[in-house]
From TrEMBL:
Domain MsrB per the UniProt entry, residue ranges: 11-133
Catalytic residue list: 122 (nucleophile)
Family: Belongs to the MsrB Met sulfoxide reductase family.
Matching NCBIfam families: peptide-methionine (R)-S-oxide reductase MsrB (TIGR00357)
Gene Ontology MF annotations: peptide-methionine (R)-S-oxide reductase activity; zinc ion binding
Pfam family name, one: SelR
Organism: Novosphingobium umbonatum
Cofactor names: Zn(2+)
Protein name listed in UniProt: Peptide methionine sulfoxide reductase MsrB
Catalytic activity line of the entry: L-methionyl-[protein] + [thioredoxin]-disulfide + H2O = L-methionyl-(R)-S-oxide-[protein] + [thioredoxin]-dithiol
Length: 140
């Protein structure tokens, strides 16, 4: 993992920072049950940040309803924010996506998404924080 002095350095520190659910997903590669995540049906405009380190990952303009039960995006905000790894668990070959900054598990990417990319980034809500865009007329 790339050293970032502002990130927890031990698993005990991560566990304390994240709490049990987020720790299980981000640090142990867990998955929340379909249709139970906080952001699965969120339609508000804004940015989705890594729930572990706050790195910007996805923008609401690339979110769509895939029907899968998890928040789905067709592209990350910046490709360098996402690391992709081959995942052969559960008798399947998939591509796991992790935060490139803290290596937190986010979900998986599949080649069955909409254009323009044809990709579906299937992401656990618990691995994200949502920051809504300022509404017109609000002070920044």
């Amino acid at each position: 993992m790339t050293e970032h002095s502002d990130l927890p350095q031990t698993e005990a520190q991560w566990r304390e920072k994240l709490g049990p659910t987020r720790y299980h997903i981000l640090r142990e590669g867990g998955t929340e049950r379909a249709f139970t995540g906080e952001y699965e049906s969120n339609k508000a405009a804004g940015d989705y940040l890594c729930g572990g380190c706050g790195a910007p990952l996805f923008h609401s303009s690339t979110k769509y309803n895939s029907g899968s039960g998890w928040p789905s995006f067709y592209a990350p905000e910046d490709a360098s924010a996402i690391a992709e790894l081959r995942d052969m668990s559960h008798g399947m070959v998939r591509v796991e996506v992790r935060c490139a900054r803290c290596e937190g598990h986010l979900g998986h990417v599949f080649p069955d998404g909409p254009q323009p990319t044809g990709l579906r980034y299937c992401i656990n809500s618990a691995s994200l924080n949502f920051v809504p865009e300022d509404l017109p007329g609000e002070d920044a």
